[in-house]
């Protein structure tokens, strides 16, 4: 196999390829939007090559209906501004090379002054160049290009909204459940190094896993945000929103718990002593951490939509099947906060910190 050329340690191929293919349905919808926009423009405007309509359709079919609407507005604004600038410059100055280059510079400055989005800002000079190069001297040409663009954007929006509009609930649900699974696993691992003497490397590994929760939380947040956006202006949103709302609410609680657990784990790593396992209070804390892990898993099951039966083989928050989740004890395991009558003379700072963290974790789990 030939080696892949790298630049700064990053594979060049990764710059132009995605890790996953765009869904085939999205490709089909884009193709259909281009074809419909093309023939609609020909029928309405009697133009043999409605390029602007095809370009608009290509760019406006996006993963969500809301994104399609925004992109359609951005492209329409950019085309209108570019066409108007080009038509005015062409009528006054002609269509020489210097006029084309000058109008590009002016278009960029206008976009900057109006604070247009990148999509609109790029479209202004592109539209201006096309109009100057093809038909600046034709009075109806500029108006037809604007109408073409609007036709392409409207067709693309209609196709995206009516032909199986995307609902990105599954990625959000999976990301939240993975975060739940990983959080519970870190709680169990932290309990393990407190219950039994462990080497320093094992404690550091638990901290590494705890810190990785922040990346998992960010991934889940991005997935939930994408899911919420996919429901905007979506005809299928009404019967889907409940599931996503449950995941979003669970993610809010998990985010707080992630911050708590990372702080707890860092405190244990910084102040760890194998003799901690001999402290009866630390043993109780380890038990409470195991109970917290149980209750975090329980939160995930309670967040599932009871109206939607779990599919066979579906993964639960701890990587188990849905049937295993059904076997999970329904009763919350956390007890009342622990009370310490005599503080440990050597580790009382760490023990006190862990007790306070356990209290906060408990309150977040039970919704206190």
Could you describe the 3D structure shown?
The chain is mostly helical. It has two domains: 142 residues, no CATH class; 198 residues. Helices cover 71% and strands 1% of the residues. A hairpin with a 2-residue loop joins strand 1 and strand 2. It is elongated, with a radius of gyration of 29 Å.
Features:
disordered N terminus; 368 residues; mainly alpha; two-stranded antiparallel sheet
Topology, element by element:
Elements: E1 6-7, E2 10-11, H1 13-16, H2 24-45, H3 51-60, H4 65-93, H5 97-113, H6 118-134, H7 139-162, H8 169-195, H9 200-231, H10 241-270, H11 280-303, H12 322-326, H13 348-366
Antiparallel strand pairs: 1-2
Helix pairs in contact: 2-3, 2-7, 3-7, 4-5, 4-6, 4-7, 5-6, 8-9, 8-10, 8-11, 9-10, 10-11, 10-13, 11-13
């Amino acid at each position: 196999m030939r080696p892949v050329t790298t630049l700064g340690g990053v594979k060049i191929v990764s710059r132009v390829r995605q890790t996953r293919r765009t869904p085939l349905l999205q490709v089909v919808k884009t193709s259909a939007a281009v074809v419909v926009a093309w023939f609609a423009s020909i029928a309405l405007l009697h133009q043999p090559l409605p390029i602007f309509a095809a370009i608009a359709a290509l760019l406006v079919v996006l993963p969500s209906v809301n994104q399609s609407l925004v992109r359609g507005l951005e492209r329409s604004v950019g085309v209108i501004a570019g066409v108007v600038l080009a038509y005015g410059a062409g009528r006054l100055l002609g269509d020489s090379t210097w006029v084309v280059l000058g109008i590009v510079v002016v278009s960029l400055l206008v976009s900057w002054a109006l604070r247009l989005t990148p999509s609109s800002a790029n479209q202004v000079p592109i539209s201006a160049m096309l109009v100057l190069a093809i038909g600046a001297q034709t009075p109806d040409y500029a108006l037809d290009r604007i109408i073409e663009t609007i036709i392409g954007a409207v067709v693309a929006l209609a196709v995206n909204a009516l032909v199986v509009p995307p609902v990105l609930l599954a990625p959000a649900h999976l990301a939240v459940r993975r975060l739940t699974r990983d959080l519970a696993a870190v709680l169990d691992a932290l309990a393990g190094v407190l219950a039994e003497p462990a080497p320093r490397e094992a404690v550091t590994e638990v901290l590494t896993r705890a810190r990785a929760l922040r990346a998992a939380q960010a991934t889940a947040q991005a997935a939930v945000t994408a899911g919420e956006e996919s429901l905007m202006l979506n005809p299928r949103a009404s019967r889907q929103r409940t599931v996503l709302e449950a995941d979003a609410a669970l993610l809010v609680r998990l985010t707080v718990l992630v911050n708590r657990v990372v702080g707890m784990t860092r405190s244990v790593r910084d102040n760890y002593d194998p003799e901690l396992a001999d402290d009866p209070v630390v043993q109780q804390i380890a038990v409470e951490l195991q109970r917290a892990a149980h209750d975090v898993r329980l939160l995930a099951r309670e967040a599932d939509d009871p109206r939607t039966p779990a599919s066979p083989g579906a993964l639960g928050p701890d990587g188990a099947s849905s049937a295993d989740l059904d076997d999970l004890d329904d009763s919350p395991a956390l007890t009342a906060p622990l009370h310490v009558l005599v503080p440990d003379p050597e580790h009382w700072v760490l023990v006190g910190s862990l007790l306070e963290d356990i209290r906060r974790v408990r309150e977040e789990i039970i919704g206190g």
